[in-house]
Design goal:
single chain; 258 residues; alpha/beta; Metallo-beta-lactamase, Chain A; seven-stranded mixed β-sheet; 17 strands
């Protein structure tokens, strides 16, 4: 095993390297998104052109069009089935031609890795984007390691079918009123997800980066705390998993030399 590495740049934006392939997840490279402002971490500076971009669903904090335009090169966009029509309308045919649409259970190859779309318990569209009927998905990337990028999800029965994993990139927080419902994971539900997927390693994401303007003093525990709360809960719920709470811009490498 040559080693698999993941760098977290905040929210759900990560650079995953495995078997010579570099994948960028749900790029959000801006400092502000509507009512949300980047409250921690620097604006990501990509190390180069990725070999592929994984896009989990058509919500603006995961499918951010200005950030997609800022990604260097012309990598394929791995998207949920139905999303290419949205890309064609919003960005033009040239961008849509780069889309590889996957429904849960379907897969494609990017360099030396296989990318398979898997179920996510999360609404796939919001507002006018819902007309495209693109479901939300997660992805399992398989090369030297088996890595699950969950996107946005709540708990679902089929989660255990993803086991065993080497690395889980799992959402543990957020700001909205639906956090902890069946559509999202909070720290405790994320630890239960980790128990189900039986991952050797886990990195908590989707917290501690963007926050509504003016609410910084109202719910600070929801901004700063989910990563450590997840790690504490995982020690009880999934004791065989090693959790690494990354700071913005930090990297975890598993397998090979650490």
């Amino acid at each position: 095993m040559n080693g698999t590495s993941v760098t977290w740049w905040g929210h759900s934006t990560m650079w995953l390297s495995d078997s010579g392939a570099a994948l960028l997840t749900d790029p959000l490279l801006a400092d502000r998104l509507v009512h949300l402002r980047r409250m921690a971490g620097a604006t990501p500076s990509l190390p180069g052109a990725p070999d592929g971009v994984l896009l989990s669903h058509l919500h603006a904090d995961h499918f951010h069009l200005p950030s997609l335009r800022a990604v260097p090169g012309e990598p394929p966009l791995i998207v949920p089935r139905g999303a290419a029509a949205f890309v064609a309308q919003a960005m033009g045919r040239r961008w849509a031609d780069r889309c590889v649409e996957l429904a849960p259970g379907e897969d494609t190859r990017v360099g030396g890795v296989s990318v398979r779309a898997v179920h996510a318990a999360h609404p796939g569209g919001r507002g006018p984007w819902s007309q495209f009927r693109a479901v939300a998905v997660g992805y399992v990337v398989e090369g030297d390691s088996r890595t699950w990028y969950a996107g946005d999800t709540g708990l679902f029965d089929e989660m255990s079918e993803l086991a065993p994993l080497d690395l889980a990139l799992i959402p543990v927080g957020g700001w909205g009123p639906t956090l902890g419902s069946h559509d999202h994971l909070d720290a405790e539900a994320a630890a239960e997800a980790l128990r189900r997927v039986k991952s050797a390693w886990a990195v908590p994401v989707h917290y501690g980066t963007f926050w509504p303007v003016g609410l910084g003093r109202i719910r600070p525990h929801m901004f700063h705390g989910p990563g450590e709360r997840f790690a504490e809960q995982a020690r009880r719920t999934a004791p065989d998993t090693r959790v690494r709470v990354l700071g913005h811009g930090e990297t975890l490498t598993i397998g090979g030399a650490r």
